[in-house]
Amino acid sequence: MKSSTAALLLASIGSLTSASPVKSRQTTEPSAFTIVAARSGSPIHLQTVQASGRAFWIGKETTTYCPPEVDAEGSCPPGTQTVFEGGESTLSLDVSVPGGQQVYVEPTGALGFTQAHSSVSPAGSVFEGFSINQGPSFGSLGFSGLGATGFLACAASSSSPFPYKIFADVAGLKDADTPSGSVNDCIGFDALTEEYTGEGAAAWQYI
């Protein structure tokens, strides 16, 4: 994250506590945005959420693909950031690939996204229930499906926490559902949204 962005978020967060929504709606939701985790005093504070391996992470690089024929024309988007669209019930990724890529929440709480040219997701996954409460400087993403009360970043292992996999804090989240095998290795956080100002789609497709 750029230092100026981090400074802005630090100044704006103030007394914001984990999982507390931003209630102000003084500005219009941006059409495309990145997501930054806010949990003061934790390793994930002000870290960006990245798409990789059909899941979302903190501590992994964004992974994207652009077809060689598109690349040969010089038409590939940057593909270096994970950028989202929507937030009014449904959430998607900011891509050029026909059909787009949708974000969903698995019954375990894990956030994932569809493959390009496919709408397939794990059985019982939920695509609706996302929302954005927009403030003057940033927004706060929420998810109300599956009895969720916020978002979690769950460490890959107890001994070496990074990367963290992103979950919705759904009702009945079990140790076995988490990467490390323990819910105690998960950290609740506010999912802050910041407007993406790049031109065109952020990626051809995420993988």
Q: Which short descriptors sum up this protein?
A:
14 strands; 30% strand; two-stranded antiparallel ribbon; mainly beta; 10-stranded antiparallel sheet; globular; disordered N terminus
In short:
By secondary structure, the protein is mostly beta strands. 8% of the residues lie in helices and 30% in strands. The strands form three sheets. Strands 1, 2, 3, 5, 6, 9, 10, 11, 12 and 13 form a ten-stranded antiparallel beta sheet that branches. A two-stranded antiparallel ribbon has the order 4-14.
Provide a descriptive summary of the structure in words.
The chain has 207 residues and is mainly beta. The chain is built from two helices and 14 strands. Strands 1, 2, 3, 5, 6, 9, 10, 11, 12 and 13 form a ten-stranded antiparallel β-sheet that branches. Strands 4-14 form a two-stranded antiparallel sheet. A two-stranded antiparallel sheet has the order 7-8. It is globular and about 50 Å long. The protein starts with a helix and ends with a strand. 39% of the residues are buried.
How many strands, what sense, and barrel or not for the largest sheet? 10 strands, antiparallel
Instruction: Provide the gyration radius in Å.
Output: 16 Å
Count of strand segments: 14
Straight-line distance between termini? 22 Å
Binned, the helix content reads under 10%
**Percent in strands:** 25-35%
User: What's the tally of helices?
Assistant: 2
Low-confidence stretches: 1-8, 10-27
Q: What class would the helix/strand composition place it in?
A: mainly beta
Order of helices and strands: HEEEEHEEEEEEEEEE
> What do the pLDDT scores average to?
88
Shape category: globular
